[in-house]
Amino acid sequence: MEDLIKIPILSFYDLAGVATPMMLGILALAGLVLDSWIGKKKPSWIGGFSLAGMILILAFQLLLHIGRANLSGDLGAGFGGLIFFDLFGIYFNYLFLAAAILVTAMSISHLEGKDYNRGEYYLLILIATAGMSLMAGARDLIMVFIGLETMSIPIYALAASDQSNPKSNEAGLKYLLLGGFASAILLYGIALLYGAAGATDFLTLSNELARLKMPDLRFFFMIVGIALVVIGFGFKVAAVPFHMWVPDVYEGAPTPITAYMAAGVKAAGFAVLIRAFLYAFAGEWLQTYQIIWILAALTMTVGNLLALVQNNLKRMLAYSSIAHAGYLLVGMTTLVSSNTTQEAFSPTYAMMYYLLVYSFMNLGAFAVIVVLGRERRGGEMIADYSDLSRKRPFLAVLMAVFMFSLAGVPPLGGFFGKFYLFLGAVHSRLYWLVLIAVLNSVIAAFYYLRVVYVMYMQKEREEVIQPGIETGVLINTVLILSAAMVVLLGLVPNQFLDIIFMTFRKFV
Amino acid sequence: MAAEAVNWIYAAGFYTVAGIAVLSALIVIGARNPVISAVWLVVCLVAVAGIYAMLHAQFLAMVQILVYAGAVMVLFVMIMMLIDIGKFEPGRKSQKILRVIAAPFGVAVTVILVTLAGQISKVKNVQWPEPPEGTSEKIGGMLFTKYLLPFEVLSLLLLAAVIAAIYLARRRDREES
Questions:
Q1: Considering chain A, what is the average pLDDT of its residues?
Q2: Which letter, b or e, does each residue of A2-32 get, where b requires 16 or more Cβ atoms within 10 Å of its Cβ?
Q3: Chain A residues within 8 A of B150 when measuring between CB atoms
Q4: Quick check: B158 contacting A, CB < 8 Å?
Q5: What pLDDT is stored for residue B50 in this prediction?
Q6: Which CATH number is B83's domain given?
Q7: A309 in a domain, yes or no?
Q8: What interface predicted TM-score (ipTM) does this complex get?
Q9: B108 touches chain A (CB under 8 A)
Q10: A365 and which of A137, A402, B42, B106 could share a cystine (Cβ 3.0–4.6 Å)?
């Protein structure tokens, strides 16, 4: 009996590693209690409560960050080696929390007076964020999978939350079915890896991959398992050909949730992919990177070409989100094709920076849709934006900033994001891929700038806008914060990259 | 000699159980009447439990029968009864075209898989990792030591599922009041 039950000794670092998801979970539980008390009459208060809590947790990240930066070495061994406590995870926690805060603020404004404005909505956002945080810290495929499900299940429900809108129901059901399918594929991949390597933790996997060679059946099963894991995450990050759900789900889901899917879910998916390819699947065998090369090229091209013909702004942003997954996959290709771990860090920074910029651009653009949705019917069609510059000059300027940044116009964050990604790919001699990526950026500029054109040049056909409606402090804060981040990240990209670099310097 | 006989018996058992699982799964997706699908799904799940038992995962086999073949299937049948779905409508024309397009891909995948299986069966002397023991004692020990964290996170996941279900289901009564 003695050898069987070894009670794990939890160190301070173990708790620090799971502090963020734990606090988010506790916040959700406290919110649940509060919800049963005042939720029926004042559901927005639950939103305010979770907003305040998340701001505190974000501030706490700073503490964790400073604490972790002063420690060196690998501090992820606790909890049976299932979770990392490192700066990579903390960086993504910042990102997820910032996104969740902005989404919650947007939601309070968006849900006002709607029949699905209920406390649970905000709590589900909290639990989804906890899941993302666990994914970014995971050091074992079991943890990755459970984090993924903790993130996905709340988002399925949130996508379906507007039940009076058939499109929202469709979005929820589609996302649930395809997400479940993707999870099953991912789990099958994990099972194959477990069967071949005898464990699911990243260290054992990389050791086995380094030890085994091709004629060995175990190696073969591991490669198949990795392919299935990549497919599973391909669904989550919306890579072509696993993108079919994206347009319908993005269009049907309530706008703040769409923003959360674009910012949070995608970042979480890429965090796991980066981590897995840096630690678990690393090694010389990675000649299979051609698969990711093809995925990247396909994803960019299909996303951009289909975005060209969209008239609905949310649908257009959905295809644009596919295209941006393609640019990020260029970074993945660079990472996978690098020979040493040191070399792989450079595309990693580029992707981390890009994910941050991308999140703020999207959150901002979707916040504009929320504002217009409050003021007029819809606000989702691109035609709704005609003449916006005259009626709401400030809103039009902000929207133009987000669109220019998404298109990658120089002084803004979106440009530098792409620049660093493509530069890394050039260094790794992926010339053809970079060529495809640059051509795609040119195509993309067309549909982003079309929105700007409609806002500034096109006269409104019918008077649908009612100028002078109060937008609300919260949503304005979201807009200004997102725009400020996009501009700031563009003005001082080097300083930001330095910060990201710092997150890796003392790492391992 | 005796070891060989054991191997033969084991192989015969495996192919019987696996064959039942595959065949019943085919009936599940082929049947027009969802109740028939549900019943065959029970057969499939029990057959899979048999495979677990043969792999020395006795606890998992029992859980498979209790939870999946038992509880989950009862839920399926309950819901079928409640919403009264009847028989599946035959597919629309576009779906039929899709089926025609999908058929060659299905055949191609089958050919690839069979070829691979043929190649794989030729490989000998693979050192597979030792399978862990599947007794409830071992699983319980693992759950509360090495896998403590995922075990705890699962409770958050289940809570999320409950909140999500309540959030989606409770709206109706609000409209009535």
A1: 84
A2: eeeeeeeeeeebbebbbbbbbbbbebbeebb
A3: 82, 142-143, 146
A4: no
A5: 92
A6: 1.20.120.1200
A7: yes
A8: 0.86
A9: no
A10: A402
pLDDT per position as a tens digit, A199-249: 888 888 888 888 877 677 888 888 889 989 999 999 989 888 888 899 999
> How many Å apart are CA A121 and CA A119, to the nearest integer?
5
Least confident of A112-126, A405-419, B5-19, B125-139: B125-139
SS3 state at A381: strand
Q: What is the tens place of the pLDDT at every residue in A51-80?
A: 999 999 999 888 888 777 777 666 655 576
Contacts of A216 in chain B (CB under 8 A): 126
Q: Which domain holds residue A416?
A: 289-508
Contact A481, A69 (CB under 8 A): no
Amino acid identity, residue A92? F
- Structural domain of residue B24, as residue ranges? 1-89
How many domains does chain A fold into?
1
- Give the whole-angstrom CA distance, residue A486 versus residue A412: 6
Domain-embedded: residue A272: no
Tell whether A323 is within 8 A of chain B (Cβ): no
- Kindly report the three-state secondary structure assignment for every residue of A429-456: CCHHHHHHHHHHHHHHHHHHHHHHHHHH
Cβ within 8 Å, pair A80-B138:
no
Chain B residue at shortest CA distance from A161: B168
A127/chain B closest Cα distance in angstroms: 7
- Chain B closest CA to A277's CA: distance in Å? 22
Please list every residue in chain A whose beta carbon sits closer than 8 Å to the beta carbon of residue B130. 198
The pLDDT score that the predictor gives to residue B76 is 85
Helix (H) or strand (E) holding A336: helix A313-337
Residue A507 sits at φ, ψ, to 5 deg, of: -105, 115
Q: Quote the CA–CA distance of B131 and B51 in Å, as a whole number.
A: 14
Helix then strand then coil, % of chain A, to nearest 5: 80, 0, 20
Q: Compute the nearest-CA separation of B118 from chain A (Å).
A: 13
Q: What is the largest CA-CA distance in chain A?
A: 80
Does A163 score more than 70 pLDDT?
Answer: yes
**Contact present, A267 and A318 (Cβ < 8 Å):** no
CA distances from B66 to B49, B61, B81, B139 (A): 10, 9, 21, 17
pLDDT given for residue A76 in this prediction: 58
Place of tokens 């500034």: A456
Domain-embedded: residue B133? no
Tens digits of residue pLDDT in A351-404: 988 999 999 999 999 998 888 877 665 677 877 777 777 778 888 888 899 999
Closest CA to B143 of A24, A5, A450, A324: A5
Per the structure, the count of domains in chain B is 1
For residue A155, is it within any domain?
A: no
In a domain, A449, yes or no: yes
Q: What is the pLDDT of residue A463?
A: 56
B111 within some domain: no
Q: Among residues of chain B, what percentage have pLDDT more than 90?
A: 24
Residue A198: the pLDDT is: 84
CA separation for the pair A39, A49 (Å, rounded):
11
Beta-carbon separation of B141 and A146 below 8 A: no
| Cα gap A395→A389, rounded to integer Å | 8
In the three-class reduction of DSSP (H, G, I as helix; E, B as strand; rest coil), residue A5 is classed as coil
DSSP letter at A200 equals -
Restricting to A residues 62-91, those with a Cβ less than 8 Å away from any Cβ of B are 79-80, 82-83
